[in-house]
Amino acid sequence: MMEKSAISDPFEKARLEKGVGEMDDQNDPVTMVLGHKDVRKCAHNWKTYQSGAEPGRIVIPSEVNIRDIRQIPFEVDPPMHGEYRALVEQWFKRPLEADYQAALEKQIGALVDEVLTKDSVEVIKEFSLILQSRALTLLFNVPFSESETWISWGTHVFRSEGNALDGDKANILYNYIDNEIEKSIQNPGKDLYSVLLASEVNGRKLTKEEVKGVVVLTFSGGRDTIINAVTNSIAYFSEHPKSLDKLRKEPELINFAIEELIRYFSPLTQMGRVATEDTQVCEHAIKAGTRIGLNWVSANRDASVFENANEVVLDRKINPHVAFGFGTHNCLGATHARQILKVLIKTLIKKVNSIEILDAKENIETLGEFKRKVGFDSINVKFN
Amino acid sequence: MTKITFVTSDDNSITVEGNTGNVMELAVQNKIKGIDGNCGGVCSCATCHVHVEPKDWEKVGAPSTMEADMLEFDEKVSDYSRLSCQMKVTDAIDGVVLKVAK
Q1: What angle do CA A10, A15, A17 make, to 5 degrees?
Q2: Closest Cα in chain A to B85
Q3: CB pairs below 8 Å between A and B: how many?
Q4: Interface test with A, best of B25, B45, B88 (most A CBs within 10 A)
Q5: Cα A98 to Cα A104: distance, rounded to the nearest angstrom
């Protein structure tokens, strides 16, 4: 029987035979690029495959119908992209600082202590969402109590139950952000909003709209993805107690384990780009104005790059995965994400002997002819 | 001890010493600006990219196929690019000068 934590690769055949896969998305089809090298090549070529298209369009499923605000620096092309990125780069490296790590250790330690007292824990709602929301207060440098509001929004900020995009739900987030920006204008502090409001780009202050663009990106980019990575990690360690033992005995392997788990889970399936000219991928014509998808999931299972690509090799030494994207637009929140996983693993090693899966409901996404397991809709476990 | 000199993007020259591990780790320990080593040294993040001084290229040697593949589409690649996480700190590279790509 397949392990509950296993995630198979639905793209292998198409990757080997054609190099691309087709899917529709709200009548705006996507040609998914599947091979590791092709994905890297297209990600690198930002002139032909742009991010600065209509806001929301490079996200799959497309958010054009529920979002007008441009996410920054994510939906901006070079050279302006680099100006914005330089503004926020240092801020997003704060997770490397000792007191950030200490605060994260305290948060995650307390949460693990709490779930250890329960007979059954639904990991997504009662663990991962809480962990992600609390950790995000550190990235924003706002009071811990803000996490209660964010937790109350549920797991998806753009989606209701099921996968339908939900404009009303998105508005809750946008109104909240407008409010927070106004508060920081009135009372500047040391939070991300205030830092952005005081920042300059090309010799002028960032506009409110630009500040909002960065903030929306910070909320949306690191929510589902981190919840997915944390939940899948718990499922993996519950079915592989020996892996947790191995890391307990050889903590120097933790860094390798983090990268390997991120490769294997690849929480973000793909990211879109819009072609600026008629071109081709793997001899497949791409028309100007249409979309491609940089399929990180498929690239991360490419057997020409990864030996035993469909297995978790916890101490994989060479691991050029693209789970955080590739090239100029690579993930701004990667440092935060890696630090969360590092602290999570260290905490599990210290406090948890075993994790038992009581029941689990898989979350399967449909991408044209492909069905990919992303993780879980719900998973109940007992921490021991 | 092996001496390695890093030249950062703001033209600071810093010489550090080590005898174990890889060059990225040595740079991170010494807080060399522009070397982050985000992925911990598995050849994924390219935040340890350096340009080897041409005179030192023989000492350092060419990248492996995998490393070269990752560098191929890097924004700042040159003929003398290496990912420093893939360079071991040994006597063989004593005295080399590495320009930080970022």
Answers
A1: 115
A2: A318
A3: 55
A4: B45
A5: 10
Q: How far is A380 from chain B (nearest CA, A)?
A: 31
Average pLDDT, chain A: 95
Comparing alpha-carbon positions, the chain A residue that sits nearest to B45 is A320
Query: Which among B42, B43, B83 is the top mutation candidate for probing chain A, defined by the most A β-carbons within 10 Å of its own β-carbon?
Result: B42
ipTM score for this prediction: 0.92
Which of A38, A300, A259, A329 is CA-nearest to residue B69?
A: A38
Q: Contact at 8 Å (CB) between A54 and A71?
A: no
Interface check for B13 against chain A (CB to CB < 8 A): the answer is: no
Query: Phi and psi of A241, rounded to 5°?
Result: -60, -30
Which CATH number does A12-383 carry? 1.10.630.10
Which amino acid appears at position A85 of this protein?
R
Q: Do A256 and B40 touch (CB under 8 A)?
A: yes
- Are B42 and A328 within 8 A, CB to CB? no
Q: Where are the domains of chain A?
A: 12-383
Report pLDDT digits (tens) over A25-41. Answer: 999 999 999 999 999 99
Query: Which positions ≥6 away from A177 have C-beta within 8 Å?
Result: A212, A215, A216, A219
Closest A-chain CA to B68: A320
Task: Please provide the DSSP assignment of A355-379 as one string.
Answer: EEEEEEEEEEEEETTEEEEEEEEEE
CATH architecture of B2-100: Roll (3.10)
pLDDT, one tens digit per residue, over B33-78 is 999 999 999 999 989 999 999 999 999 999 999 899 999 998 899 9
Binary contact (B38, A334; C-beta < 8 A): yes
A172: left (phi over 0), alpha (psi -120 to 50) or beta: alpha
Beta pairing, strands B49-52 & B81-83: antiparallel
